[in-house]
Structures are given as C-alpha cells and as structure tokens.
Amino acid sequence: MSAQRIEYASLAPKAYQAMYGVNLALQESSLDPLLIDLVFLRVSQINGCAFCIDKHAHDLLRLGEDFQRVNNLSSWRDTSFFSAREQAALAWAEAVTDIIKNHAPEPLFMALKENFNEQEIAELGFVIALMNGWNRIAISFQQSVAPRPRAALAI
Questions:
Q1: pLDDT in tens, 32-71
Q2: Which intervals hold domain Carboxymuconolactone decarboxylase-like (predicted)?
Q3: 16: which of 7, 9, 73, 151 fits an S-S bond (Cβ 3.0–4.6 Å)?
C-alpha cells in the first residue's frame, strides 16, 4: 500500500478524540475486553482493513487470547472454539457490518437476547459501529501497517 493519504488525526483532532473517547468508554463497559477485541477483529476482517486486523490480532494475543482462536476467527462457524455468547456476538457483528445484505435479522437479535442483557446488547452495538467507522477511516485514508519487530510478535 502507498503512503497514508492525509494525517486525519491531526487534521480533525476533535473528531478523532471523540471517536477515541468512545473506544475508551467501551473499554470500561460491561463487555469482556477479549470479546470486544474479537468483534473488532472480525469486523475488520469483513471490511478488509489491514491496519485494524493487525492491531486487533496483536491486541488479542497480548491480552492472552489463544492463537488458534485468533487464527480461526474468520471461520468461527466451522470450529468449536467459540462459546454460544461469542457466536451470537460474532453473528450479530457480521450482520450489522453487512447490514445492506440482511438488515440485521430477528433470529440473530433473538440469539443476542439469549446471551446478553440489554445493556450489553447496546454496548455491543457501539462496539460494532465504532469499528466499522475506524475501518472506513483507515481504509479510505490508506492507513498502513507498520512491520512489527520479531520480538513484538513473540507474545
């Protein structure tokens, strides 16, 4: 990928800080930080955001997530690695990310209600919306992925 098109964070600092503030608020939500990053990573995979995929895969490993789960997240339906709660969140994240295709169907929402309370569902909605926003900013402004030193990869 070529160089970043513009320095969006410094050109629109108030907007950048507002989005970052939502991220900080979500880190203090009732949702498990690992679940948040799993959703961040899955949304980023769907959107094809290399910068965000790299960041959230690394964050998950740093937080102690199992490599096999991170590595197989894009094929979560074909594994037994994810709990019913995680599966409901991932299915909802996929539906909301590709909302034009299926308009967030009722059966997926009902699966959410079986696994999350209403506060958690609302927070999950913000997790998904935020990551879709970050993905669109990073992709459209060509945020590049910096190579990580080998030592940084050995979590």
A1: 999 999 999 999 999 999 999 999 999 999 999 999 999 9
A2: 14-95
A3: 9
Say whether 149 sits in a helix, a strand or coil.
Answer: coil
User: How many CB atoms are closer than 10 A to CB 153?
Assistant: 10
Q: Euclidean distance between the first and final Cα of the chain, in Å?
A: 26
Residues 88-135: tens digit of each pLDDT: 999 999 999 999 998 999 999 999 999 999 999 999 999 999 999 999
Per-residue tokens: 108: 């997926």
From the list 80, 79, 74, 70, the residue with the least C-alpha distance to 93 is 74
Which CATH number is 12-153 given? Answer: 1.20.1290.10
- The residues spanned by each domain of the chain are 12-153
Which pTM does this prediction carry? 0.93
Rounded to whole angstroms, the Cα distance separating 19 from 25 reads 10
Instruction: Note whether 53 and 134 are within 8 A (CB).
Output: no
103-126 burial: b if 16+ Cβ within 10 Å, else e: eeeeebeebbeebbeeebbebbee
Which letter does DSSP use for residue 2 in this model?
A: -
pLDDT tens, position by position, 68-85: 999 999 999 999 999 999
